[in-house]
Amino acid sequence: MALYRLLQNLAFKDRTLARGSLSRLLSCKPDVIAKLKAKGGIAEVAPPPLAILPGWKIRANRLTKLGIITATEFLEAGDEEVMKAMRINQAALDKWRGEVEGWLVNPNKQVEG
Fold first, then answer.
1. What is the pTM assigned to this prediction?
2. Can you give the residue ranges of every domain in the chain?
């Protein structure tokens, strides 16, 4: 499932997604996504390997055993599988995913390891 960066605000009936945010745009049909790409409203995120994120080298090595290499793969991986392999709880997993999402939104942001 693709992850998109919004290059402009995107208004829906019940909410607005802010420019710069990330979304899978699950509520959008493929033809709408194609039009948004063509008009420069969204861009597909090219996910970096987790190992290059500050403080993520050890975690990335462990996640590789699950076949999780990139930031997007980590964000889309099943909770139970990751928590079991990493021996963490849901709160820790949510924190880690927040760090990765934050890095994708603002690559210059310092991420704590």
1. 0.68
2. 4-44, 50-105
